[in-house]
Amino acid sequence: MILLTRIEITNIRSIARGIIEPLPDGITALVGVIGTGNSTFLEAARWVLYGEVPGGLRQAEMRRHTTDGEKCEAAVEFTLGGTPFRAVRGLRQKVAKGRLTET
């Protein structure tokens, strides 16, 4: 059985930094006003685990606005058969011909 233990995001879409640690023996709910980033955690987990970005966005559009040159990544921690795993996906920027580009 797979058990999600943590989702951590840095500079993804509307969230500068956030961590969710689901309750081990219960139900965890993400609540808040529409547009404040609740679904961003689930979208980031999908991006980390499957490389899929939501709603036809390009991967570079996962980066939070105004964070050029800063760390942009998401991590998902889970256990499978009692063994812990951590998957991480991020975006790096490089300077090409005087401008920043995503790699």
Structure description:
The chain is mainly beta and 103 residues long. The model has no long low-confidence stretch (mean pLDDT 85).
The N- and C-terminal alpha carbons lie at a distance of 34 Å
Mean pLDDT: 85
Helix content percent band: 10-25%
Q: Total number of β-strand segments?
A: 6
| SS-derived structural category | mainly beta
Please tally the helical runs, counting DSSP H or I stretches of 4 or more residues. 1
Low-confidence stretches: none
SSE order in H/E notation?
EEHEEEE
Radius of gyration, whole Å:
15 Å
**How many strands, what sense, and barrel or not for the largest sheet?**
4 strands, antiparallel
Overall morphology = globular
Oligomer: single chain
Name the beta content range. 35-45%
Walk across the major sheet and give the strand order.
Answer: 2-1-3-4
Features:
6 strands, 13% helix, mainly beta, single chain, 4-stranded antiparallel β-sheet
Sum this structure up briefly.
13% of the residues lie in helices and 42% in strands. The protein is mostly beta strands and 103 residues long.
List the SSEs and their pairings:
Elements: E1 2-12, E2 15-20, H1 38-50, E3 72-80, E4 83-91, E5 93-96, E6 99-102
Antiparallel strand pairs: 1-2, 1-3, 3-4, 5-6
